[in-house]
Design a protein that fits this description.
mainly beta; 1 helix; Lipocalin; signal
Length: about 120
């Protein structure tokens, strides 16, 4: 009986540790040297979509592993776009990220967020 309990506990911990990050919510974000924008993300399975207030921005991505989201950003207000990557903190209340502009090979700057809802 003791051996069965240990096996069940290990299986439960494996399932809990393999859960995908949940990026859903409203985030106060900062990007680059001084940009600030509010972002709302919705997650369904591995797919993540959302909007942000700066230049009518849109996020479209996927959860690549347990804690990282990769995708693209577009801004209809100034016709800019690029790639983004966010990594969720262990407590799920913040993320650190980076972004670039289309056509660039390296990351342009940081894009970090704190969950507010």
């Amino acid at each position: 009986m003791k051996k069965t309990s240990i096996i069940i506990a290990v299986a439960f911990l494996s399932i809990a540790n393999s859960a995908l990050a949940n990026f859903s919510g409203t985030w106060q974000t900062t990007w680059g040297d001084s940009g600030v924008t509010r972002m709302t993300l919705h997650q369904s399975g591995k797919n993540v979509t959302g909007t942000y207030t700066h230049q009518n921005g849109f996020i479209d991505g996927y959860v690549a592993n347990k804690k990282t989201m990769r995708g693209s950003w577009t801004q209809s207000g100034n016709n800019r776009a690029g790639v983004v990557q966010f990594t969720l903190s262990p407590d799920g209340r913040s993320f650190t990220g980076k972004y670039n502009y289309d056509g660039e090979d390296s990351w342009t700057g940081t894009w970090n967020g704190v969950k507010i809802k």
